[in-house]
């Protein structure tokens, strides 16, 4: 496929650039009036229009004229919980009435509510509903995703969720990474026996997950009222023996120590970070652990927005992701995330786009194949409608400017 007359080809980073830290995030190399050639599912070549392969050569390729339009590398959504059995709009109404996230969770809502619903759902039902959610996300420009377990909380249900994610990995046309999150909350029966549940995770679940190769990463919700730093440390230490690197939930509701314990264990990413202090920012300075920010969670829960500028001033790498889940973020729309990052985190459009593409790919260890326009990378991208400028994309929040989806070098129609 040959795409011609592209108003601007966005994210043409050097092939060997795999992640961007601090002020590097402001650099979003863009080629104006460009062409892009895709072959065998990969990016074959690109350049300015005056070097475009001649029209006779063009006849060998399906050609798309993208005059007035931008071509972006697809969004890489590195944090989601899209496998769940039922929505939780009743909690949405409780929130409007003034109840907080922790209050709802303490009353048996929240994650436990989702776990009860998931226990009775079949693998087939979970697969089908999650597949539909991901297809909707693909249509909004996402073409790589991380998916967590964590609504199982028993041996059987956690493995059931991970098998569903494995099937999504096999059947969806985009890269999928799986994260084992049994340590999402304490199930009711272990409410007063935390060590009992941790032992179950470490001695029974982890070996089974590793044996079936069901997970790429380990996650723990390290938070006041959930898993303490010591408990997180124990689980991450055990997971390391099975080569599962951490991607953890940290500092969502309090300065929990989650970021530092994640960094200590060489986490690929520490996610949320709505609550930070100077020590947290410094712990990520010049660090390979990526800070994954989830502004649509802040928006929905009415909690603080993360300190993106402070992180960038400390030369941290920031990724942006949706956190799509039925409790704290019932939305998988990366376009909205990028808009919120600009509006609420005060990220510049270039910074936000880098965070949602190359750094999102890095937060799934996928940036050798995804996240930018570079020769040899997977041809997953989207073409916008006719738009006046790059900044128009986040500016026009809540409206989709994504017109054509290309996955593995072919137009995707769902
Ligand atoms: N905070 C922990 N996990 C999810 C929410 C889970 C839920 O409420 O169902 C999150 O990332 O926001
Ligand atoms: Zn989450």
UniProtKB/TrEMBL annotation:
Gene3D superfamilies listed in its UniProt record: Metal-dependent hydrolases, Urease, subunit C, domain 1
HAMAP family: HutI (MF_00372)
Positions that bind Zn(2+): 79, 81, 249, 323
Binding site for 4-imidazolone-5-propanoate: 88, 151, 184, 252, 328
Gene Ontology MF: a single term: zinc ion binding
Pathway: Amino-acid degradation; L-histidine degradation into L-glutamate; N-formimidoyl-L-glutamate from L-histidine: step 3/3
UniProt name for this protein: Imidazolonepropionase
Task performed by this protein: Catalyzes the hydrolytic cleavage of the carbon-nitrogen bond in imidazolone-5-propanoate to yield N-formimidoyl-L-glutamate. It is the third step in the universal histidine degradation pathway.
GO biological process, one term: L-histidine catabolic process to glutamate and formamide
Protein family per UniProt: Belongs to the metallo-dependent hydrolases superfamily. HutI family.
Domain Amidohydrolase-related residue range list: 70-410
Subcellular location: Cytoplasm
Enzyme nomenclature, EC number: 3.5.2.7
Matching Pfam families: Amidohydro_1
Keyword annotations: Cytoplasm, Histidine metabolism, Hydrolase, Iron, Metal-binding, Zinc
Cofactors named for this entry: Zn(2+); Fe(3+)
């Amino acid at each position: 496929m040959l795409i011609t007359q592209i108003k601007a080809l966005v994210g043409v980073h050097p092939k060997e650039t795999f992640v961007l830290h601090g002020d590097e995030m402001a650099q979003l190399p863009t080629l104006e009036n460009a062409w892009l050639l895709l072959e065998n599912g990969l990016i074959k070549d690109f350049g300015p229009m005056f070097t475009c392969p001649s029209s006779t050569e063009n006849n060998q390729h399906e050609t798309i004229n993208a005059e007035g339009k931008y071509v972006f590398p697809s969004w890489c959504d590195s944090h989601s919980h899209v496998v769940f059995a039922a929505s939780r709009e009743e909690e949405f109404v409780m929130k409007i009435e003034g109840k907080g996230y922790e209050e709802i969770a303490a009353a048996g809502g929240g994650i436990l509510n989702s776990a009860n619903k998931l226990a009775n759902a079949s693998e087939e039902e979970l697969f089908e509903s999650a597949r539909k959610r991901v297809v909707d996300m693909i249509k909004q420009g996402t073409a790589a995703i991380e998916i967590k377990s964590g609504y199982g909380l028993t041996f059987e249900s956690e493995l059931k969720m991970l098998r569903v994610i494995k099937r999504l990995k096999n059947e969806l046309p985009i890269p999928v990474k799986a994260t084992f999150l049994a340590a999402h909350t304490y199930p009711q029966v272990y409410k007063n026996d935390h060590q009992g549940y941790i032992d179950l995770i470490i001695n029974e679940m982890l070996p089974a997950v590793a044996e079936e190769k069901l997970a790429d990463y380990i996650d723990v919700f390290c938070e006041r009222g959930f898993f303490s730093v010591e408990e997180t440390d124990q689980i991450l230490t055990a997971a390391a023996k099975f080569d599962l690197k951490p991607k953890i939930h940290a500092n969502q509701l309090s300065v929990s120590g989650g970021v530092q314990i994640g960094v200590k264990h060489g986490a690929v990413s520490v996610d949320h970070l709505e609550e930070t202090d100077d020590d947290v920012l410094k712990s990520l300075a010049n660090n390979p652990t990526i800070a994954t920010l989830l502004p649509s969670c802040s928006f929905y829960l009415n909690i603080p927005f993360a300190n993106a500028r402070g992180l960038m001033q400390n030369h941290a790498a920031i990724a942006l992701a949706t956190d799509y889940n039925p409790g704290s973020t019932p939305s998988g729309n990366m376009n909205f995330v990028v808009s919120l990052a600009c509006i609420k985190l005060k990220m510049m459009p270039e910074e936000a786009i880098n965070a949602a593409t190359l750094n999102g790919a890095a937060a799934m260890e996928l940036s050798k194949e995804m996240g930018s326009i570079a020769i040899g990378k997977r041809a997953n991208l989207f073409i916008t409608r006719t738009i006046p400028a790059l900044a128009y994309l986040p500016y026009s929040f809540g409206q989709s400017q994504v017109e054509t989806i290309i996955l593995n070098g072919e137009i995707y129609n769902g």
